[in-house]
Design goal:
The protein has eleven helices and 26 strands. The protein is an alpha+beta fold. It folds into two domains: 192 residues, Collagenase (Catalytic Domain), CATH 3.40.390.10; 193 residues, Hemopexin-like domain (Hemopexin, 4 Propeller). The structure holds calcium ion (CA) (3 copies) and zinc ion (ZN) (2 copies). The site of one zinc ion has 5 residues, from loops. Keywords: Calcium, Disulfide bond, Hydrolase, Metal-binding, Metalloprotease, Protease, Repeat, Signal, Zinc, Zymogen. InterPro entries: Hemopexin-like_dom, Hemopexin-like_dom_sf, Hemopexin-like_repeat, Hemopexin_CS, M10A_MMP, MetalloPept_cat_dom_sf, Pept_M10_metallopeptidase, Pept_M10A.
């Protein structure tokens, strides 16, 4: 039984020797002095808010793995044998808006997705990982305990095929927070606890490393929360790496910090422009990507250059190299997308190329990028043509060939992809897009194809004044 909280287990142990051994195990797990007897430090450690999955287990396989590796992570005997893991939200908490909880689940799963070949798909039927917020007795063998102490628990993948395997339960007697600055008793950061529980859902036991996400105790809110090297090694020991990538989160941070320190932000307005040759290249060819920037300007990208649209869509000047204006961004982009400010989320620009995407806030690339589209935008294919937020229904659309992927920022793909004729843009006079964007500057959605660009009337009917040529 994986679910018995350790203190209950201790109560149940009848033999004095077994109790001593259990206490010694607990002390080892928490890096306490190993005495085999209860003392103040041990008691305090047992009372701290924590995960309800038990630390001590006699799983021979995992113990052996740990000895061989000499590492703090501990693996379950079983793992999932498919790479697309499904999840479902069975019951929400009222502590946070549903949209925020949805987005937090995606974010927590993405930590594991980023470093493994796994991807995660939301479904509305019983899933690998069924997620619910519940109180006290909730139908399994691990009733919750009211505010504090046990915060959540999850079930390991198992070979018994029982539907509960993989499921993650959260104690709704806790107050779940988006951040962690509120000084309310028994309030905990949801992202951190979810990431930990999903680690169990995928087959990780508690880690002995206190810095690990898989450490059994709740760690106070950390705005820079992410997987620790030990978590990455643990999950990769089960599932392998993503694309044979060897980057650990720690290496990524160091590299990004260095880049950020030496960064000299260049804005198109301040710096000198390269007109002539480079500009001509933009005039006679198709665009790779267009987007509104977080500054409200309209940007176009082609090959190794970008430019800023001026007073109208066909007067683009101030051409510059992508490497000078958007540090870290590759040439020959597939698409770009701006998600505007929403609730407490900042406006962000996303760039797409091949299987990767890049997130920018202003002109600065966020740490840890590029990431895989299959993690950050589950259900969206690689090598897309364009992406935009539709002004008419406020939905995000990804376009590849004649297929449109309707996407919700917090939940992901909202329905299977459809051909253009089944979308609100069916009157668009082209089936092949190079780039598309909603310009906050011109308050219009523009579709680019070859040397032409299009727009629809406000009721989305065909506009006979288009196409026009990109000048
Ligand atoms: Ca399940
Ligand atoms: Ca509790
Ligand atoms: Ca494109
Ligand atoms: Zn746990
Ligand atoms: Zn439960």
């Amino acid at each position: 039984n994986y679910l018995t909280p350790s203190h209950d287990m201790l109560d149940d142990v009848e033999s004095g020797i077994a109790l001593e051994k259990a206490i010694a195990n607990f002390q080892e797990m928490f890096n306490l002095e190993i005495t085999g007897e209860m003392n103040e430090a041990t008691e305090a450690a047992m009372e701290m808010p924590r995960c309800g999955v038990q630390d001590m287990h006699d799983d021979r396989v995992s113990i052996t793995m740990r000895r061989i590796n000499q590492l703090p992570y501990v693996l379950n005997k079983y793992k999932w044998h498919h790479n697309v893991i499904t999840y479902r939200v069975v019951k929400y908490t009222n502590d946070l808006p549903k949209k925020f909880i949805d987005a937090t689940i995606v974010k927590a799963l993405n930590f594991w997705c980023d470093v493994t070949p796994l991807s995660f798909k939301r479904v509305d039927v019983p899933a690998d990982i069924d997620i619910k917020f519940v109180v006290k007795d909730h139908g399994d063998s691990g009733p919750f305990d009211g505010p504090g102490h046990t915060l959540a628990h999850a079930y390991f993948p198992n070979d018994d095929n029982k539907p509960i395997r993989g499921d993650a339960h959260f104690d709704d007697d806790e107050l779940w927070l988006a951040g962690g600055r509120k000084k309310v008793r028994h309030s905990y950061n949801l992202l951190q606890v979810m990431t930990h529980e999903f680690g169990h859902s995928l087959g990780l036991h508690h880690s002995k490393s206190s810095k690990s996400v898989m450490a059994p105790h709740y760690v106070p809110f950390n705005p820079r929360f992410k997987l620790f090297a030990d978590d990455v090694l643990g999950i990769q020991a089960l599932y392998g790496k993503r694309d044979g990538k060897t980057t650990t989160p720690r290496e990524t941070t160091e590299r990004t910090t260095r880049e950020t320190t030496s960064e000299r932000t260049t804005t198109p307005v301040e710096s000198s422009t390269t007109e002539g040759g480079a500009f001509d290249k933009c005039r006679d060819g198709k665009l790779d990507a267009v987007t509104t920037g977080t500054d409200g300007h309209s940007y176009g990208f082609r090959g190794s250059y970008y430019f800023v649209f001026q007073e109208s869509i066909n007067s683009a000047v101030k051409t510059q190299s992508i490497s000078s204006g958007w540090r870290g961004l590759p040439n020959d982009l597939d698409a770009a997308l701006m998600w505007p400010r929403e609730n407490n989320k900042k406006a962000r620009v996303y760039f797409f190329k091949g299987s990767k995407y890049y997130r920018f806030e202003g002109r600065r690339m966020a740490a840890g990028y590029p990431r895989d589209i299959s993690c950050g935008f589950p259900g969206i294919p690689n090598n897309i043509d364009g992406a935009f937020v539709s002004k008419s229904d406020h939905k995000t659309y990804f376009v590849k060939g004649n297929m449109y992927y309707e996407y919700e920022r917090s939940r992901g793909l909202s329905r299977p992809p459809v051909r253009k004729e089944y979308t609100p843009f069916r009157h668009l006079q082209t089936d092949r897009l190079d780039a598309v964007f909603y310009s906050t500057q011109y308050k219009q959605t523009y579709f680019f194809s070859g040397k032409n660009y299009y727009r629809l009337n406000s009721d989305l009917s065909a506009n006979s004044k288009y196409p026009r040529a990109i000048s």
